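Most newcomers find our protein records easier to grasp once they have seen one. A learned vocabulary of local backbone shapes supplies the integers on the structure line. Here is such a record, shown just as it appears in the course material:
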Amino acid sequence: MVAGGRSDGDRPARVDACLIAGGLYHDIDYARRELLDLLAEHDQVRVTVRDDWEDTATLGAADLVVAYTCDVRPSNAAQDSLRAWVEAGGRLVALHGTNSALDVGGPDGVVIPRCFPTLADTLGGQFVAHPPIEPFEVNNVAPDNWLVAGIDDFETTDELYLMEHAESAALTPLLTTTWHGTADGFQESDWTSGDGERLLSYLRPLGQGAVLYNALGHCRGHHDMWPHKDWWPTIERCSWELPQYREMLRRAVRWAMGADS
């Protein structure tokens, strides 16, 4: 299950990838298409696409997994299967809302249920809130790590994910930002205390494998807030429009395939 697959002589080894793309409130079709294009840059990668985590047989046989979801809540069995796959040497690239669960429409704003503890621990954190989409600075705090080497600090306009991390010391930060404020519309809205440093991307080693998380990459089309809204007025592509984000995704795919530089 470690990326590398099967080879014949000098020919590139086949690599079996599983792309998990599904969920709510985002343009999942756009993200799925863009990620498939990135994976297709490597001729040896063969991709199976799923919209949730429940096909544990396909996931368990994959050499690598890439995930872009929002409010996709895996069963306990699926959480355990993913955990075991990573611990056995799998590399998972998880993007944006993959660590999110949202209960929307209540009187207290958006409530974040802690409903998938094993997944949250595997991913290294869980989404809790975000302020309105607006520009913020992204800081490269690991310039010697090849996953972000040569990428200068940059500004993006995106959802700034505010996350909780049960084992912060186990994470290797790659990108951060600094933000204090109120995340209006969320039950857990007060983010005014502390030093304000917020993780945006990090590595989470786990057993023989690892997770590479990048919380940037919001996207939404006109029809993606259904059933709460019939029409969303703007097309949102956020960090997807930046060359820095695209370069980090390309490196993330290479990393998931087994590269270390």
Remarks:
- The first strand starts at residue 15 and ends at 23.
- The CA atoms of residues 33 and 199 lie 26 Å apart.
